[in-house]
């Protein structure tokens, strides 16, 4: 079976991380299952030159965030991992508290309960103690927190270079080969 990854795009600023992730997974012929929140769709329109329909077309399968009865809501639907990029504090809170009132949070909850890899690209700053507490709760349950904090040792020249560095870190965790950024010492 080819690798199968769920991609969630929540409504935080930084939807380009999710869009770029989808595009790069498609290039590698990895099966993608996409969930976009309503706020995520709105931010796609505000922050990118894409339409929500164009982003949905990048995925192999796309689901309504309201469809809590979709296959992704069941542990018997086998996936390799899930990435929420970007991840809002609201979505983080739902995941940390197992408050599964939409498909994105339910799919993340299933990912955790089945001991599969869950990456949360939490996009908020500054952080208060409540945000940090939610991150700790999610990490304690097995989530991998990967805020899009750029590094500069690879001397990025463009915004795409910065985005690719974050996506490369996600790929590293998921075991996906890439050459998205120059590694330390290369």
Overall number of structural domains:
1
How many strand elements? 6
SSE arrangement, N to C: EHEHHEEHHEHEH
- CATH architecture assignment: 3-Layer(aba) Sandwich
Task: Give the helix proportion (percent range).
Answer: 40-55%
CATH topology: Rossmann fold
CATH superfamily: Flavin prenyltransferase-like
Q: Find the structural class using helix and strand composition.
A: alpha/beta
Quaternary assembly: single chain
The gyration radius over C-alpha positions equals: 15 Å
Walk me through what this model shows.
The chain has a single domain, classed as Rossmann fold, CATH 3.40.50. It has seven helices and six strands. A six-stranded parallel beta sheet has the order 3-2-1-4-5-6, sandwiched between helices. Helix 6 links the parallel strand 5 and strand 6. The longest helix is centred in the last third of the chain and has 16 residues. The mean pLDDT is 97.
């Amino acid at each position: 079976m080819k690798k199968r990854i769920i991609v969630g795009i929540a409504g935080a600023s930084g939807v380009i991380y999710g869009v770029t992730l989808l595009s790069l997974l498609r290039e590698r012929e990895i099966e993608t299952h996409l969930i976009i929140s309503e706020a995520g769709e709105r931010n796609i329109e505000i922050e990118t030159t894409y339409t929500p329909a164009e982003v949905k077309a990048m995925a192999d399968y796309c689901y309504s965030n309201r469809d809590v009865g979709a296959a992704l809501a069941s542990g018997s639907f086998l996936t390799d991992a899930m990435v929420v990029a970007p991840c809002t504090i609201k979505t983080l809170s739902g995941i940390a508290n197992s408050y599964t009132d939409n498909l994105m949070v339910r799919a993340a909850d299933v990912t955790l309960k089945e001991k599969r890899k869950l990456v949360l690209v939490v996009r908020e700053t500054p952080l208060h103690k409540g945000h940090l507490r939610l991150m700790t709760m999610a990490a304690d349950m097995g989530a991998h927190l990967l805020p899009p904090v750029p590094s500069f040792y690879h001397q990025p020249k463009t915004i795409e270079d910065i985005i690719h560095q974050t996506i490369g870190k996600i790929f590293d965790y998921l075991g996906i080969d890439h050459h998205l950024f120059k590694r330390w010492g290369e």
